[in-house]
Fold this sequence. Notes:
Blueprint: H1 18-37, H2 40-59, H3 68-95, H4 97-100, H5 114-123, H6 125-145, H7 155-178, H8 184-199, H9 202-205, H10 233-254, H11 259-281, H12 287-296, E1 303-307, E2 310-314, H13 322-335, E3 348-351, E4 358-359, E5 362-363, H14 367-383, E6 390-392, H15 399-415, H16 427-440, H17 442-453, E7 458-461, E8 470-473, H18 474-483, H19 487-496, H20 498-502, H21 508-515, H22 524-527
Parallel strand pairs: 2-3, 3-6
Antiparallel strand pairs: 1-2, 4-5, 7-8
Amino acid sequence: MSATMTVAAPARPTPSSTQGRRRALLALARFESIRMLRHPLTIAAALLFLGPWLWGWLSGSVNQYPVLPDELITIQLLALPILGGSALIVANLVTLRAHRHKVDASYDVLVLPPAWRVGGFLLALLPLAGLSLLLVGVPVGVSAALPGAAGSVDIATLLTPSALTLLLGAVGVLAGVLIRSVLIAPLVVLLVLALEFLVITPLIIETSWRFLLPVYVSEFTVPVPAGVSDRPAARHLAYLTGITVLLAAAVLARANARRQVVAAGLVVGLVLAVGGGLTQSRPDPGLAAARATVEDRPASIQSCEIRGDVTYCYFQGFGGFVPGWDAVVTSVRAVVPASAAKSGPPLAVRQRASLDAITAAGWGGSIAEDQRVVAGWKVEDAAAGTPEAVRVDTSWGDDRAAAALAAEVAYRLMAAKAYDGGNFLCGAPAALLVWLVGRASPTTLAGMRSLDETSFGALSFSDISSRYGILVPDRVVAPALELLQRPDEVAPLVERHWAELTAPDTPLERFGAIFGVPIRPLAPNDEALPCVP
C-alpha cells in the first residue's frame, strides 16, 4: 500500500486587509485622476474657460479697472457649465467604463469591492477640483495685480468654482451607478445650463429661495461697495459642500458600502447643506444701515485724494479708479477755454452708488424720486466740503463710462454747478456739451458714439449703474456731431462765444448760426420734452 501525500500550493497573497484595500483605493484614484485630467473634454473645457480671458489680453480689450467681487461672480457663472459640466461627463464616462466595454463581470475578481471602487472614482475628482482652482486663480490673480483693481478677493468665493466642479463630478458618478447610459450626463449638463439661466433671471434673483441655486449672485447687477451686497460666500460654499457629501453618500449606499460610512456621510452632508442653505437666507441685521450710509451719506466712509486742484472721493477699495477719472477730467478741461469757464467752487468728483433704484430688474425709480435723491446728494456734498461735486459711478474701465463722466464734468464747467438730473438738456448748451465730450479724447468720443448707438430719441450719458445721466435730444446731438468733423475752425469760435453758448436760454438755432450748421426743425415730440431750465 502506498500513500500519496498531496501538498497544497501556498495561497496567492491578496491585500484583503483594510490597509491593503486603502492602498489599492489610492492607486485607483491616482490612475483615474490622471485619465480624467488628460481626457480631451477636460482639456477642451480648460481652453474654452481661459479662451475669452486670453483673447482679451491679446486684443487689448481687457478691462484694466476690474471690480474683483464681480469678476469672481462672472467666473463662477462660466465655471459652472464649462468646468463643472466637463467634470460631470468625464466622471460619468469613467464610472461607466466597465459597462461600456462589457467587462462588468470581470470586476468581481478584483481586489476592491464595488463600494471601494466608486470611492476611488470620487477621490479622483479632487485633482479636477484642483485644476479648476488653478484655472480660476490665474485670471483672478492677474486682475488683482492690476493697479486699477477695486475690491478684494474673497477666499470662499474663489473656492466656489472648485466646489461646483466636485459637486457636478459627484453627480456624474451617481448617474453612472444608477443609470447605465452615457446619454444621461449630457442631459444633466443641459439641466445645469437651465439652472444657470434661472440664476441670471431677475425674477428668480429677487425671490427668497435663490440661495438654493448652484451660484449665489447679488441682487445688484452693478458693482457696489463692500459691506452692502448680500453675498454669503462662506455659507454658500458650506451648502455646496454639504450637497456634494450627500451625493457621495448616495453613491456609496448604492454600492453597498458599510452602513456606518453612509450614515456618517449623510449626517455631515445634512448639517452642511441644511445649515449653510438656511443661514444664507437670513438677512444681515446691519445691511440696511450700511446701505443707507453708502447711498445717502457716503462722505462719512469715503477717502479723498487731491490731484492738482481737483478732489476725488471714493469708496473703500475703489482708489485705483482715480487715475482713470483724472485722465477724463483733464481731457475735458483741456478743451474748455481757461479764461472763459464760469466761476464756481473748486472742482470735485465723488463716487456714488444708487442701491435702491438699480436691481436685477433694472431702474425702478421715477423722475421725481431722481431729483429728490440728487438734491439730497448736493446737500451732503456741501456739508462734506465738496459742493457741486461731479458724480461718478462704481463701474469704470470702458469708453461709455468715460463719456458719461466727461459729460458730467463738461456740464459742471459750463454751468458752475453739478447736473441736477431728471430732465433733458436742450438748446445751445446741450449741443456744446456734446461737442466737448467728443472733442475731449478719442476714448470719450468712442464712448459717446457707443451710447448714441444704443439710445433712442435722445443721447443718454449714463448706463444701468446711473440714475441721473444727462439726456440730450437727437435734434441737438446732430449739429454737434457734425462740428466734430471740423476741429480746427470750431475751437476759436467756442472760446469767442463761450458766454453766449453756455447761457441756459440760448436756443439751438443760435448754435447753428454761430457755427454754420443746419438745425432740424422742431417736431411735435420735441416741443413736449421737459428741458433743464
